[in-house]
Amino acid sequence: MIQAILSKLTILAVVDIVAMAILIYQVVLVVRGRQVAHILTGLSVLVVLYLLAVRFRLELLATVLATLAPYSVIALIVMFQGEIRSVLARIGRFRWLGLGSQLERREIAEEIALAVLQMAEARIGVLIVVEREIGLRTFIESGVAMDALVSRDLLCTIFQRGAALHDGAAIIQGDRVAAAACFLPLTGNPALSRRLGTRHRAAIGVTEESDALAIVVSEETGQISIALRGDLEQDVSPKRLQGRLTRLTLHRRASDPPAELDLPNTAEAGDSPAKIPAKIKV
Fold it and tell me: Of residues 54 and 190, which shows the higher confidence score?
């Protein structure tokens, strides 16, 4: 029997089975833990009742259920419209030829940049670390686990003055805020300026031990700084910040040659000439 099944198992049949399995898996992910799961259970009970009614010739029950069946399709579409949208959105987020990934990454970079700009204008101290190829699990475990989708509102809430998670760093993995209030190692380089505070030293310290990108907002001046591979670039404009997030963090890999933070002569168009980034080599 197994040989007979295998003889009929063509490449198209395998593709068909895999596609159906993926579709069912996406539906299960959307349905799991929601009220719609109970609705589907109730519908399954009605289907079983109809089959039993037909099997034991319960004509009245079978007729009623058969009459309601055509209208149930419309009812399902109305009741499950939110879940249907969720399934289609999950399918749309698949990284078809890298297009979905590029768009998603650009959106994440924009959310981070908007949050940093908003907090810089309010002079709120910020330390955000974006993980790249080298994992930051040790630092994540030192903070408060979150595993929440990256958004401007979430980041601003984390670093709100007086909030429990304000002190420490927020670490981002992919499109998720993995943890907040994380402890980072401070750089011990004696060549650094004494004017640099704890946040800046922690940003440099974590980038010395990994390929992560660290973003700092000074609580005293509202100035934005970027740390990468032990280098600190200060007085970064919002446009420059988003460009760094997209180019360095979201498009480069650890196997690429080390990325240097640009000097003023390579600044993008739109950066203010008065804002010359100070490059500190450590």
Answer: 54
